[in-house]
Please model this.
Amino acid sequence: MISLYIAGRSPLHRLPAGIKLTALMAISIALYPIDQPLWLLPVLLLTVVGYASLGAGGLQRLTLVKPILPILALILIFQTWTQGWAAGLVLLQRLLILVLLANLVTLTTSMDAMMAAVMPLLRPLRWVGIAPHRIAFAVALLVRFVPVLMALTASLLDAWRTRGGGRQQWRLAVPLLINAIRMSDHIAEALAARGGIPNDSKR
Model:
């Protein structure tokens, strides 16, 4: 899981995690009013340029979206059927941009930096007796898990096709769940071996 982070000194690596997360939120909001597919195309290309700035390893990570392409295709078909092709393309591009940008943030942000960025937002939870560093750790872990589960889904789909599996891909839900639980057990064991979740020194 930790290997998702690509160590480097690119401009994206040097940006503080808080700025990257804020930019991700701002872009998510800014994309919503856009209703023309051509206006979203430059944003999508800039997102790919962001991956290219990380080198060959960054471009290879673009394949992480491969497992969700069938879902995006279904969304495109349904949206085109109900609201027209332009609305379908806009929704498809919007989802693709957000997934790629969120993944780009995880590729260029270490776990510690992610937790440090989320912690200030969670400090008010202390007033109700909740340790904010534990919530921050859970949020960072969740963000890290998304591309891991996507890669796991891709490997299961490849194995399914190799063995001549049909279109009933819903049967992969059970092995996917089992692998996810097994992976969470490994992470819990690794955390326990390192003394658990680090304490918040400012508490």
